[in-house]
Amino acid sequence: MKKSAASVLLLGLAGILSAPCALAAKTSDAQVREATELLARLVGTPTVAGRGQVPVLADALAKRLVAGGFAAEDVQVVPMGETAYLTARYRGTGAKRPMLISNHMDVVEARREDWKRDPFVLATADGYHFGRGVSDNKFDIAMVVETLLRLKREGFTPSRDIILVFSGDEETAMKTTAALAELYPDAEFLINGDGGGGTLDSGHKPLTYSLQTAEKSYASYTLTVTNAGGHSSRPRPDNAIYQLADALKRLQAYAFPVMHTETTRGFFDFTGKQRGDALGAAMRRFAADSADAAAIAEISSDPGYNANLRTTCVATLLQGGHAENALPQKAVATVNCRIFPGVSVESVRATLAAVVADPAVTVAVVDEPFSSDASPLREDVQRAVRKAVDANFPGLAVVPEMSNGATDSQYFRAAGIPSYGASGLYMRDEDGYAHGLDERVPVSAVPRGLKHWHALLTELAK
């Protein structure tokens, strides 16, 4: 998953979030070339579920890290089924607790016949690098790895261990993520390249930088109605399909309670100031008074911004009946929910059951999802992100955000490790083709990404 555009927090933090800092060390043409070559290698390995290529890529990255100065015993590739995860420890003095750097090595499927170019060959044209996973999430893998190798060459000794935790199935089951989240309980925080990042306008000028501090959890539920059925020539009132349809209509009419955090209030305050319309005015009123009913109604009318106000649930799958000439014995709907930070999976299930208000409808959780809280706004992380942003665009507004999608960070937050999405990628919204056709990143993103990660890591581990 890659970041979406913006939310902001400027609540008493202007000194950290807005003041320019010293620029990072210059990035050479050779470093840009090496990072681009690594990105090509990453894109060229089709780490799609079922192809067994994640371990191949993990092994290649492990060899590159060891060749660049990492101790062999500090780099591990751990297979899990057909996938794997990678860990690598850049040892520091131990003056501070370890920090984790997260990215995911797997990508979603891409079919050659659908693309203009081979999706698993990095192609460069019209100022862009094209390829599956080039933005989600292999760009930041390449930038992080090359930055750490540069720091090794420079003789940088961090105050804390810097530990890579690269997952292998973030786009599917996230079992490697769950395993990684349990390995380092002593970690002070995690920085995730698969979240946050910079937004450019249509003319490629910077608008904001988003620091992901929270994300909604993902959970699905089934609504099931069963009965004895019978012959379709003798209809009865207790039809499983009708009962399920009635339950879904009640759910459609329901809105979860409005919630807020300092991140989302700051988001609405900043975003409202950027707009000159009624919606922007409503955002500012909500930031000042979260009980303002008129402001809530105005914001709720926009599906994207409504998702920043509350937990949302929506029916996404439907199945029922077994024959066209028989009364249905079973009807099932799948409801997908994006849960506001701090809300439990079970409490959402209980709310769905109450909204359905029909004992004939069974509401059950699918698989074993979980929820996680928002991460606190640490001054050291904010200061480091400020420095990293200034390395490319001095003074650009830094925007803490709550993502409506999910990343590996949710597992680490649930394990008690504060997690922050801080990608080095700057993109226009119209170039956001992650998971889609002709996925791309600007060629200019590579030198910017290298500057970003060099400034970020050296500040966090100085």
Automatic annotation (TrEMBL):
GO terms for molecular function: metal ion binding; peptidase activity. This is Peptidase M20. Residues 1-24 form the signal peptide. GO terms for biological process: proteolysis. NCBIfam families: PRK09133.1 (NF006596). Keywords: Hydrolase, Metal-binding, Protease, Signal, Zinc. It comes from the Bacteria. InterPro entries: Bact_exopeptidase_dim_dom, Pept_M20A, Peptidase_M20, Peptidase_M20_dimer. PANTHER family: N-FATTY-ACYL-AMINO ACID SYNTHASE/HYDROLASE PM20D1 (PTHR45962), N-FATTY-ACYL-AMINO ACID SYNTHASE_HYDROLASE PM20D1 (PTHR45962:SF1). Pfam families: M20_dimer, Peptidase_M20. Residues 214-360 form the Peptidase M20 dimerisation domain. Belongs to the peptidase M20A family. It comes from Arenimonas maotaiensis.
